[in-house]
Amino acid sequence: MAKITLDNLAHSYLPNPTSEDQFALKQLDHDWVDGEAYALLGSSGCGKSTLLNIISGLLHPSQGRILFDGRDVTHAPTAQRNIAQVFQFPVVYDTMTVRDNLAFPLRNRGADATYVANRVQQIAQMIGMEDMLNRKARGLTADAKQKISLGRGMVREDVNALLFDEPLTVIDPHMKWELRTQLKSLHQQFGHTMIYVTHDQTEALTFADKVVVMYDGRVVQMGTPQELFERPEHTFVGYFIGSPGMNVLDATVKGDRAVIGGTEIALGKAFGTPSGKIELGVRPEFTRLSADEGLPAKIKRVEDVGRHKIVRTDVFGTEVNVILAEGEGISPAANRVAFAPEGVNVYADSWRIKAEGEAA
Questions:
Q1: Are strands 25-32 and 4-11 parallel, antiparallel or unpaired?
Q2: Which of these, 4, 8, 56, lies nearest to 31 by C-alpha position?
Q3: Which residues form the ABC transporter domain (predicted)?
Q4: DSSP alpha helices (H): ranges in 191-286?
Q5: FRET pair for 232, CA 20 to 30 Å: which of 121, 152, 158, 330?
Q6: In what order do the strands lie in the sheet with 247-250?
Q7: What is the pTM of this model?
Q8: Extents of the domains making up the chain
């Protein structure tokens, strides 16, 4: 296992980039702790796979360094980095049995035969393929082949890091949940440094100790699932994490008051007089319907999703979502939405600003 350091790292697919916009991966300076599980989360094209391929050595960065436990590996080939990588689509040896596919990385390094047999059996049990060990990979389904890829990536215990590039794309939904749980269990048991690329927030939040949210080539926030939910540092984090995502409304803010669409509301804490594009961000969980306070709202529809109801409202032309508990009714007089002060975030040019007196 290894601590992974990204030092002044950036990458452009153009030979001579002239502006920041031409970088697929904008400057990063981060330390990823040895033995933790990270998820790289973001929409397609945000730079997740680019970063993963730089860490693995498949791609050389335009600038900066990659260090494993303080050792510069920027120019080291993939084989010398001692990592295992699992790709989006299965990579297996069709002419080999499942057993031989799983054993290949160990045999290739001269591991003891007894150890290889025991480790293969352990991994086969984890991926649910014990009864298929003697079958050839040729003819197996795509999700079965991907389970082999996952198993082969995890069979070595001495790797610096395990890298997963959207590995569950071809896995059926029930098996996805099972494999995520097993990956988490494997991490807890062996303590590998794991980096898991996904655009699926559920995968990221259930797998990782820390989620690294990327947007437009940048890391906009790295934190625990709770931190990302309660305190999104960028409006994209609020929008991307949560179902539905954070409500975001244009506002002007002065002290502990905000004005939205000509209506003034109390914020519960003071934010000074921020400049730039000012927005209020409030998750639906901290939003409620009211008959006598808050912002004027028109209820457009109500969606019952079993655990709770999602009320879709219109506030000055912006959709604002409200979550109601299961069984909670809607008053005919409810024509406004109000925000719980503890759930209100203020953003300037998409970045969260701290309230006066708020701890760093």
A1: antiparallel
A2: 4
A3: 4-241
A4: 201-207, 225-230, 235-240
A5: 330
A6: 247-250, 278-282, 344-348, 351-353
A7: 0.84
A8: 4-230, 243-353
Residue 109 has φ and ψ, to the nearest 5°, of -105, 10
Task: Kindly provide the b/e burial profile for residues 246-280, where b requires at least 16 CB atoms within 10 angstroms of the residue's own CB.
Answer: bbbbebebeeeebebeeeebebebebeebeeebbb
The whole-number mean pLDDT for each consecutive block of 10 residues of the chain, a chain of 360 residues, reads 89 91 92 88 90 92 94 91 84 92 92 94 88 92 86 84 82 75 74 85 85 94 91 95 94 96 94 95 95 94 90 96 89 93 95 88
Quick one: CA torsion of 249, 255, 261, 262, rounded to 10 degrees? 170
* 37's tokens: 């599980």
Residue-level length of the chain: 360
DSSP 45: T
- Give the pLDDT score at 1: 63
Q: What DSSP character marks residue 354?
A: P
243-353 topology per CATH? OB fold (Dihydrolipoamide Acetyltransferase, E2P) (2.40.50)
Backbone angles phi, psi at 341, to 5 degrees: -55, -35
**Phi then psi for 196, rounded to 5 degrees?**
-125, 115
Cβ atoms of residues 331 and 291 within 8 Å: yes
Instruction: Quickly tell me which residue has 């409304």 as its tokens.
Output: 249
- 4-230 matches 243-353 in fold: no
3-state SS, residue 214: strand
Q: Which two structure tokens, joined as six digits, stand for 341?
A: 């002060």
pLDDT at 128: 84
pLDDT digits (tens, 9 = 90+) for 65-102: 999 999 999 999 988 888 888 887 888 999 999 999 99
Beta bridge partners of 38: 195, 210
